[in-house]
Design a protein that fits this description.
single chain; alpha+beta; Endonuclease, Chain A; ten-stranded mixed β-sheet; nine-stranded mixed β-sheet; 19 helices
Length: about 550
């Protein structure tokens, strides 16, 4: 009998089936996903951008809808490059937070934010506070969140947040049971397995931030226990309109529900939104070493506002293509030919000389490994950076990758694994200049093909990104950026990563530098016997498609 088989006559199975059938009958999503108030808010956004509706600074205005210095500065650059897009990498978590906060403060018309994760922590509450203050100035805010990482307490914050007349919040593919979320796994599979993994924040339809970062302390480099090395890009120009169109398609989809249709405000709690932001304790602000103080310092140290207005941000202008899964992927209502992975294959084609992959969750699968081996056999130089076992935040993903290392290495493919002990002092390495600061876990999703094309976005090289979740990103056609990413994976990385090698007798070794000394491990670092057994068992299971 399989380890997953259960005797049909068992009492536990009967109880499980009975519970599932009983609860399934109750699991009905609201018939009306979009309330009139949020529909009206979207109509107001559309009206803002109708021809002749943009006011100058000297005209009368009821709300802050006017041609600001920011809009003028960006428009001037767009006029010089009408068919191109400009990009600027956001390297550190501190700059990632500061950019979002400051641009929120500069917006005058509308802000559209779309995220897989928005944590109810200091970073999340600070940015919600910024958005609320923007709404107080008359800016229209639309916040679209995936539901997989939400909880009942955060629902209350979102309900109070959405109570503002200039704010609407929608939840994509929502969980039915808000308080007892485990019940969703009994009654909601496989629907709730499909998630919106997109990450973007667009200001006044002029400038946007996309990339791998979610909203939370660990993503914005202020979590003392777990931080992610990640990569965002600041974008202006032609590509912003495509990102705006993608947001609108997700926002208006019938699978996106206004938060008020899913949850009810708890009358026992405060109805004042700002007062309910419990992670922003005033007492902690007086501590010079507090997390809140570090966020404040990040904003004070950033000059992105004046740099944008004075056109000092060194945008590189180039041809760029925006890619996104159709929202219908979440309901399996569109053909697989529309998937982002298929768009990538069409636009990028087959590498002719180089392929560099940086992926936090690298699960190549049997078919993917065979493809990589064929490319390597054809003379393509392939390098991969992913997380080591100790650095990954999803152990099951490591099992879906580690089993393929010998075959990849035999083909001459170079493999690097980020160490959990990668220190902030080692940021001189080219990788972190190109992508992100050192941290305990790699979270970036980028790859470079040949000497010209770079993809940056939310897409991981794994089956979940390819077939289950929705993803987004941009292909940047820029020789300089491609060269930086190719050169990043080299011996210079060994202070922060292991290079995995194969000995003559087909044994794995991990080469690194510790304390300016070369070190070689003959067994996987920081993997004990229990870990090894667990990874081996996991690798036997047919779960790659879930990873």
């Amino acid at each position: 009998m399989s380890m997953f088989s259960i005797d049909p006559s068992s009492l536990s199975l009967s109880l499980t089936l009975g519970l599932s059938l009983g609860l399934s009958g109750c699991q009905v999503l609201p018939k009306q996903p979009h309330l009139p108030e949020s529909q009206y808010l979207s109509a107001r956004v559309n009206a803002l951008y109708q021809k002749g509706n943009i006011l100058t600074n000297t005209q009368h205005k009821d709300t802050a809808v006017y041609n600001t210095d920011l809009v003028a500065a960006i428009s001037e650059q767009k006029d010089i490059h009408p068919d191109l897009s400009g990009y600027h990498p956001i390297v550190t978590g501190a700059n990632a937070f500061a950019s979002r906060s400051i641009l929120t403060g500069m917006a005058t018309r509308n802000i559209d934010a779309q995220y897989y994760i928005w944590h109810d922590d200091q970073a999340g509450q600070l940015l919600l506070k910024d958005l609320w203050e923007a709404a107080e100035r008359g800016v229209i805010v639309r916040l679209l969140l995936d539901d997989f990482n939400n909880n009942a307490q955060f629902d209350q914050h979102l309900l109070r947040f959405a109570s503002h007349p200039n704010i609407a919040v929608r939840i994509v593919n929502p969980l039915m049971y808000r308080k007892f979320q485990t019940l969703n796994f009994v009654t909601g599979l496989p629907r709730i397995n499909r998630r919106m993994h997109n990450k973007s924040m667009t200001f006044d339809k002029q400038i946007t931030i996309i990339g791998g970062r979610n909203i939370g302390n660990e993503y914005l480099s202020n979590d003392q226990n777990s931080q992610f090395a990640d990569l965002d890009v600041l974008l202006i120009g032609k590509v912003v309109a495509d990102i705006d169109t993608s947001f609108t398609s997700f926002w208006s989809a019938p699978i996106s529900f206004d938060i008020e249709t899913l949850a009810t405000l708890n009358k026992k709690g405060t109805r004042d939104f700002l007062a309910g932001l419990d992670k922003l304790n005033e007492d902690e602000k007086s501590n010079a070493n507090s997390s809140l103080t570090r966020y404040e310092t990040a904003i004070e140290d950033s000059s992105i506002d004046t740099d944008l207005v004075n056109k000092r941000v060194p945008f590189r202008w180039t041809d760029m293509q925006f890619l996104s899964d159709d929202v219908g992927k979440l309901t399996k209502s569109v053909p697989t030919s529309t998937n982002l992975v298929q768009q990538l294959r069409t636009l990028l084609g087959r590498p002719s000389n180089k392929l560099t992959i940086i992926s936090s969750y690298f699960v190549p699968t049997k078919d993917g490994v065979n493809t990589l081996v064929q490319l390597a056999d054809a003379g393509i130089e392939i390098k991969i950076l992913t997380n080591s076992f100790d650095a990954t935040d999803v152990t099951a993903v490591h099992s879906g990758y580690s089993q393929w290392r010998p075959k990849l290495l035999r083909a001459g493919i170079k493999i690097y694994e980020l160490k959990s002990t990668a220190s902030e002092e080692k940021r001189e390495n080219k990788l972190w200049k190109a992508s992100s600061q050192s941290s305990t876990s790699l979270h970036a999703k980028t790859f470079a093909i040949d000497d010209h094309q770079v993809f940056i976005g939310s897409y991981n090289v794994d089956p979940r990104s390819a077939n289950i979740n929705t993803e987004m990103g941009v292909i940047i056609n820029d020789d300089e950026l491609a060269q930086q990413l190719h050169q990043a994976l080299s011996d210079d990385l060994l202070n922060q990563a292991y290079e995995v090698k194969l000995t003559n007798d087909n044994q794995l070794q991990w080469h690194t530098i510790e304390g300016n000394k070369k070190v070689v491990y003959d067994s996987e670092p920081r993997v004990d016997l229990t870990d090894h057994i667990w990874l081996t068992v996991m690798s036997w299971l047919p779960i790659d498609w879930l990873l």
